[in-house]
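USER:
Working in pairs, take the chain set out below, taking as long as you need, and write a paragraph about the fold.
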Amino acid sequence: MSHYEKNWLIITSGAAPVYQESNFNSPCLTEAVFGESCQILDQDENWFRIKCEDEYEGWVNAFYGHMSPEKNTPTHVIVFPNENRYYDPKFPFGAKVTENLPGTIQITDTLGLDQVIPVAKTLLGIPYKWGGKTSLGIDCSGLVQSVLKICGLEIPRDSTQQRDFFANDKIQMDAAEPGDLHFFGKDGSVTHVGFSTGGKGILHSQGFVKEESLDSGHKSVNEKLIDIYLSTYTIQRKFRP
């Protein structure tokens, strides 16, 4: 690969799908979000192999951004819906912008542990989207990663990596505080993750972002999740005050 004078792809789409290979028929792995600075690692015609800000690597089509010799320098990040109580498709949840738009906080601010569930609740009703990380559509681990990042904790992208990240922080389900993580799967492998809203309550993306319960006696119980429940982990120790 030749050396790039322009080493960065700055995302200009609300969300840019990142693929396993340099074609639209390969699996979508994740998304890069508006304003994100993605390091260009390689090029295949009009495709770039990139490293996202969360270290995730994959291929993105060139038309989702513009090349730059320097990283983007955003000042604000979209965290809350706008004055009309919805997320703008151009600037979805997690978008990094250079102006103080409605719904933003300064990029240097982090909201803290006690805002994990309040922030996640702003995404209730957002449709599930494989590989999604924004209010345009979000998957289970994308919801967890994106909300925690806003609140001040950077964790890996995939649910299996997320469980490994919290490996030393396992707790009983009943002991879960709001923001702690419930993991699900089969034969020990993780297939799903969601936030505890306290104990057996869960806020997660499955079909859409919703609140349910892992208590078989609760009116909003999700029996299928109870059947594949694996473990619960506290996020409290990883947060720095």
About this structure: The chain has four helices and 18 strands.
